[in-house]
Structures are given as C-alpha cells and as structure tokens.
Amino acid sequence: MGGPIPLSRQPFSIGVNDALTAGFNARVFTLFDAWQDLANSSHGPYASAREAIYRGQLIFNTRQFFVSDVRGVNDRLNKPTIGATCTVCHDTPNVGNHSVSLPLDLGLTDASHRTPDMPLYTFRNKTTGKTIQTTDPGRALITGKWNDMSTFKGPVLRNIATRAPYFHNGMAATLAEVVDFYDSRFNIGLSAQEKSDLVAFLRAL
C-alpha cells in the first residue's frame, strides 16, 4: 500500500474520525494488518521486522493512557483528565494528522525543556494576573489569545522518518526520543520492547 496513489485514496474530510464524535474509531492505522502473525510462516528474513511494525501499529491504535494539563484539550473539554490513545490526536485514517484544527500545548516550550540556544519569555494575563514562561508563544502570536499560548499543530505522520529533528523546536533528534517524551509526559509505562516496536512502526509509515 505504498506510494502516492494509495495514499491519495485514503478517506478524508474535515472532522473525519474526530475523537469528539460518536463515530470515532481508535483503530486509525490498518496498513500493516497482514503482518500480524508471521512467526510460524515462511515469509523470509523480514518476518521479525514486519511483526515488530505490526506490534507498533497495535500499540499506537490501542494502548490507553491518561491526558492531563494539555492546553487545547483538557481546558477545551473542561475535563482535567481524559483517557486516550495515540490515535485520539492522530485520527485521520492511515495518515495520522488531526482532522480538525486542534493546536496543543504538550509542554514542549516549558522552561524545564529550554536549552541555552532558546529564548525564554514571560507573559502575564492582564485580566487574571497569571504568568507563563515559555520558549515559544506558538499560536498565541497569531490570535493574541491566552488560551492559545504555546500551542502548535501536530504533524502528519506519513514519511515522518525523513523529517528529523522532531517537534516544532527540534528538541528530539530521533523517533526514539519522541517516543520517550510521550512515555514520560503521559506516564504510559512502555517497556523497552514496546518503545522499539513503536519506533519500527513510525519508521515504516
């Protein structure tokens, strides 16, 4: 299913498979379903690699964790914690971008992630007096809205292996570092094998 023609035939419309609708299907990626069980078959030297990719796809689709303190999600839904899978945000079938406009603040611009080459800005809300320190105001520079502070659009995942470094500020040099960030940020509890399988899946997209 590689190449531009099959990719162009993937279903898409604004809001397709949006997690906030009743029709949401967390099984966003099905590209590697045929590689589910190759251990006992004669599929050549790539069988184990293909199984790892399938396992990564399965983790991406189904592994549940809790999302909290994410501006653009928790505040928008007025829920301090929500259950999620990776596909709640990467919801477009077999492509992996978000099908509606949903800029998010994952904490990438927090002072704790600042490196010496990054600036650090302090903003104060004139109404509430609340302050935020950030290395990048993100979408708030466009809208002027406090709720948009340090929010950014998530990327399309297809062909992501060719686009290092990752995140808007390049703070992750490898896909393994991306997986480590999410595992730590949301306390997912991934094993070393699960992290390796997720990287294999992402590299194969």
Descriptive report:
This protein has about 200 residues and is α+β, with helices and mostly antiparallel strands. It folds into two domains: about 5-100 and about 155-205, no CATH class; about 110-150, no CATH class. The chain has helices at about 5-10, 45-60, 75, 140-145, 175-185, 190-205; strands at about 65-70, 80-85, 120-125, 130-135. The mean pLDDT is about 90.
Largest sheet: 2 strands, antiparallel
Tell me the Rg in angstroms: 18 Å
Strand order of the largest sheet: 1-2
Structural class by secondary-structure content: alpha+beta
Number of domains: 2
The portion of residues assigned to helices is 25-40%
Number of beta-strand segments:
4
Tell me what portion of residues adopts beta-strand conformation: 5-15%
Mean pLDDT: 91
Distance between the termini: 10 Å
Shape: globular
Number of helices: 6
What is the element string, with H for helices and E for strands? Answer: HHEHEEEHHH
Flag low-confidence runs: none
Protein topology:
Layout: H1 4-8, H2 47-62, E1 65-68, H3 74-77, E2 81-84, E3 121-124, E4 131-134, H4 140-143, H5 175-185, H6 192-204
Antiparallel strand pairs: 1-2, 3-4
